Structures are given as structure tokens and as C-alpha cells.
Amino acid sequence: MRYLTFALAKGRLAKKTLSLFEQIGITCEEMKEPDTRKLIFTNEEYKMRFFLAKAGDVPTYVEYGAADIGVVGKDTILEEGRNLYEVMDLGFGKCRMCVCGPESAKEILKRNEIIRVASKYPNIAKDYFNNKKNQTVEIIKLNGSVELAPIVGLADVIVDIVETGSTLRENGLSVLEEICPLSARVVVNQVSLRMEHNRIRNLLADLNKVM
Ligand code: PRP
């Protein structure tokens, strides 16, 4: 039996995914060591390998078949636009992709003029404004703390993830438009889904039972 390889997005999603796997009897003790610098972990009993990657890289590993299966947020899947199958919504990591800004930007959004949009998700922002709203915008790519952009005058609005809404509230911003709901998803390489169909189907069925 060949190894089934999993790419997990580093951070909270990986922790939740591993505890979900534990519930269906798949454990990976090595991965829990707090100070480990090891990058790939093996479960010999089930012939499975797990590695942690930056969220944005998970779809890349899966598209190329370096990982058979990935667990990553819907935001990353949409942003990366890779060729892969999204097979399951794990139901955790729930949040929303939104257009946010000061209340005063509501009017600017209605006017359909060229506005500046800052985001860590330029593809999602571009798709939303160009294709769903038929509005031409200037997208400014940022790498974090995006809420700063409308406050310091870099952009009119932002496209960003809203979970509890506290980052927005504490910075005097609000949700102006909702783009889509987000959560953690299981993605599968297109060839792996055919070649390892039974193993993957059984795994998904087991996950379904505990969710
Ligand atoms: C994310 C997101 C928002 C915040 C939303 O940022 O980009 O800034 O969380 O969460 P909330 O609605 O619960 O306040 P993250 O913490 O990943 O850091 P970053 O801003 O550096 O990207």
C-alpha cells in the first residue's frame, strides 16, 4: 500500500484537523511534539503521511500530487484557483469574506466609480468587483493588518476575512458587503481521487460520522 499524503494548513486549522483525525482513530504522535522542527510525519499503521505548509501552498501541493489530500480554508482555495476537487466542508474555521470599510464608504461603493481596494486576497477582490459587480477597481495587495489601509488613506475599502468582527469594531470599520461564507475544506488531487478512490471515500465517510 502506498502512503496517502496530507498537506495541512499550518495553525488553528491543522490543530482542529488533527483532533478530528484522532476521533476516527488516526493519530500522529510525532506531530504533537511542541519543539519539533521536523516537517513531515508518518503513521505507519495506516500508511499515511502528514505535513504542515503555509495555507497558500496547500492547494499547490495538492494540484501537483505532492499531497493527495489537503485541508485548507475556502478563502485560500478561491484565491489560489488551483485544479483540484473540493470534496468536504469540515464545518470549522467558519468566517466570512467581506468588503469592509468606514460607514462613509457605503456611498462610494454605490457610485460605481473607480475605487481602491486593499486585500490579502487580490484575486477574490478582483473577481467580486469585476465579475459580480461589474465595477472597475484598483486592487492593492497587502500581506496583513489590512484594516489599516482605509484608516491611513491607502484604500477606500478592504476585502478581508471577518470572524468575530472585533478587529473591525476596534478600528472603527464595519462590514459593507458580504462576499461569501468560508470554512475549512478537504481538497483532493484529481488523479489521487481516482487511484485511491476507496481509501479516500472511506476516510471521508469516517470523518462525516464524527462531524
Ligand atoms: C484575520 C483577518 C482579520 C481578522 C478577523 O487576520 O485578516 O484581520 O483576522 O478576525 P476577527 O473578525 O475575529 O477580528 P489575522 O489574525 O490572520 O492577521 P493579519 O491581519 O496579519 O492577516
Note the overall shape: elongated
Strand order of the largest sheet: 2-3-1-4-11-5
| Unreliable stretches | none
Write down the CATH topology of the largest domain: D-Maltodextrin-Binding Protein, domain 2
CATH superfamily of the largest domain: Periplasmic binding protein-like II
Q: Total helix count?
A: 9
Structure description:
The chain has 211 residues and is an alpha/beta fold. It has 2 domains: 4-93 and 183-210, 3-Layer(aba) Sandwich (D-Maltodextrin-Binding Protein, domain 2), CATH 3.40.190.10; 95-181, Periplasmic binding protein-like II (D-Maltodextrin-Binding Protein, domain 2), CATH 3.40.190.10. The chain is built from 9 helices and 11 strands. The strands form 2 sheets. A 6-stranded mixed beta sheet has the order 2-3-1-4-11-5. Helix 5 links the parallel strand 7 and strand 8. The two termini are 27 Å apart. The mean pLDDT is 95. Bound molecules: 1-O-pyrophosphono-5-O-phosphono-alpha-D-ribofuranose. 1-O-pyrophosphono-5-O-phosphono-alpha-D-ribofuranose (PRP) binds at residues 144-147, 160-167.
Summed up, what is this model?
By secondary structure, the chain is an alpha/beta fold. The protein contains nine helices and eleven strands.
